[in-house]
């Protein structure tokens, strides 16, 4: 086979593979094929390659997400897509608002349940529960720190002059702090620090873990220093429905107001003659429950938290941030801690991957940056009761929303576990997912981050 | 009854060529059914081309999206197209050339294989080998090879697209075929032996 013959044979081979071999050249081609085994091998190999490539072209369908992008950009529907594709596409476009709505519903439900628990339950109990009596032996006498109360002012309730000595009884206005243990279902002021008797027998201050007296409530008492001691009932069964009844102006119950075993627990309180009362104590009857969460003194009220984040960006980032501050992927927070619920403010620095691709000035462009941005969010965290089998580990879920320093909205959801080796220290480990919305050329885009978070809280 | 009408409406493109379907899209000013039909017919081929020239998935997706968007806009504007697949490839190709011209060399190229749906492993494996072999071809040979072997375009259309003669395209394709065959020869022999 000389050079010209070989070139001719080569052309014949490719023409045949292309399906363009004319009938008069077929004879020549098949003669070559019959006599040359290498020629036959080449033909088989080339046909195999072509078969594979053509198969690929027919099967290299674009992904459902890409198809959705095309139709979405053109404002068309994808009626002929497979059901699964449609569902996947709808989910692809709807997961963000659905997740936001579900989170908002969850947070709202938690808040409403807490409000209902603290404000409505006692009224329901009053309506449905049968009258109960106290077992005084279970009453505990505990000292409450003065920080639990706030002295709002003193009004002269009445003065009594006898034997040239004037005794004054004052209306002492106090406010009960909103942070009480949830297992305390009722509390009653019994005495002052110097055991000065009070005229408040039967006046419950706390019920069902929430204070009965609020800032605008007051009660009658002798002129006395701020209260530092109270009787606590820790068993709900000890609550008497009579607590719901009104109290007389002099602080004594006008119906079946519960009394404590004064002889065992507290010094006797002098009764103030009702006819000598001069002050207005209308607020006594309006025992407005403070709404909100059940905060407990066993948990420290405030905590300072530092945490790190190891997260991945979506869309993926192919470049790193230009700066490298010490606070990148870190956050600090201050929380107000309840028994199960914490609310706080958090500040942090994270890099969000931002992509833009499209037409700009008639030219197809693509931008990408990995923007390190600072953010400030309000955050809510709900901690489940510690699991004793796991050494007291507390699972938690959290939600946060806020803005970056560019005024772009930010939302975060998380879950994880916490562990308190000490009453003032808490370690936590969890998972965080953040979504950032940002505008570019009058269009809003989102950038997401998801990953692990770990940190430590110091309670004080 | 309603389903029958819809069925007839969907079926009416079956016997039409790509150009005829495009003409319906053009005449009816954004006939969604016609666009869907063209998309169903050509998306695989165009996607394959985009993935061939732009190895980064996001870039190839951008090319693909922009090609179909421009096709739709062309139809709305009443532009006449003689070869729909070739027109789409031409759009994608020109966009890719623009990107290449303005590319800032800051990002590494991410090699991502061409994805196939429901394809046996040996076929996928061989395609991956072909792709790797294609990387050893010159730019000119690779593109001509792809347009001929993957997109199944006639030589004349490839010539028109690339702006060269038909004979030149044939030479590029045949040389590319031979080069790939030689690179893959050991594998192909093994593959054919295992099939026996």
How would you describe this protein?
- The complex is a heterodimer of chains A (460) and B (196).
- Chain A contains six helices and 16 strands.
- Chain A is an alpha+beta fold.
- In chain A, strand 2 and strand 3 form a beta hairpin.
- Chain B is built from nine helices and no strands.
- The N and C termini of chain B lie far apart (53 Å).
- The model of chain B is unreliable at 1-9 and 105-119 (pLDDT under 50).
- The interface between A and B is large, with 46 and 58 residues.
Task: Provide the fold topology.
The complex is a heterodimer of chains A (about 450) and B (about 200).
Chain A: H1 3-17, H2 23-35, H3 37-59, H4 64-74, H5 83-128, E1 140-143, E2 149-162, E3 165-176, E4 186-192, E5 204-207, E6 210-211, E7 219-222, E8 227-233, H6 262-265, E9 302-314, E10 330-337, E11 341-360, E12 363-383, E13 394-404, E14 409-422, E15 425-440, E16 443-459
Antiparallel strand pairs in A: 1-8, 2-3, 3-7, 4-5, 4-8, 5-6, 9-10, 9-16, 10-11, 11-12, 12-13, 13-14, 14-15, 15-16
Chain B: H1 2-11, H2 18-27, H3 32-53, H4 57-76, H5 84-102, H6 121-135, H7 139-150, H8 155-162, H9 166-195
